[in-house]
Amino acid sequence: MRTTIGRRLTGLLTGALLAAGTLFATAAPAQAYDPDPSVSTYYRDTDTCPCSGGTLTDPFDGTYFAHDAGGTAVKMELNDAGWFIGKVEFHPNDEKLWVYDTKNDGDTFYVAVGYSSGGSYHDLGTFSAPGTSETVDLTVKDFDIPDGAYVDITVYDGEGRADLIAAARGTGGAVA
Questions:
Q1: Burial level of 150, CB count in 10 A (0-12/13-18/19+)?
Q2: What does the alpha-carbon distance between residue 165 and residue 158 come to, in Å, rounded to a whole number?
Q3: Which domain holds residue 87?
Q4: Cα–Cα distance for residue pair 81/65, rounded to 1 Å
Q5: Among 138, 142, 153, 139, which residue's Cα sits nearest to residue 43?
Q6: Is position 176 within any domain?
Q7: What is the C-alpha to C-alpha distance for residues 92 and 70, in angstroms, rounded to an integer?
Q8: What confidence category does residue 170 fall into, taking pLDDT thresholds of 50, 70 and 90?
Q9: Closest Cα partner for 91 from 114, 123, 65?
Q10: What keywords are assigned to this protein (predicted)?
Q11: pTM of the full structure
Q12: Residue 42 has pLDDT above 80, yes or no
């Protein structure tokens, strides 16, 4: 009788552990990219813009930078094993950050933005695309960055600015 009860108890415990494991496995956060995605970074002097085409072309919506004297625009394309997984753009005209996630893979990346002006560094926060089931997820942030400020764009694989992927620096426009 003890053997039968022991087997039943073992079976119940095993089933409960498997069910709990399944529950935790489905609730776990997405895995980080490993290795990190490769990044191609493009800069445009917006004195000579409007700019589009060439290396600014991509399979989702291309990129267009407007004229803004003294500005340096930035486009960062992220690729993972040949897949275009996203892009980050800084537009000096209107000081906008565009973050695109273009692969529904259960993972995202995080973009920290800050600028240097007047001898101080100003952290504007960390942003990511919303992570829906859409083909392209997009977040656009509109900042108030002083003319001529250096704008730092840093891409991370993990929340909390963990696992650095790449960094770039643009410049806010309208420098006299």
A1: middle
A2: 9
A3: 38-171
A4: 28
A5: 153
A6: no
A7: 9
A8: very high
A9: 65
A10: Signal
A11: 0.80
A12: yes
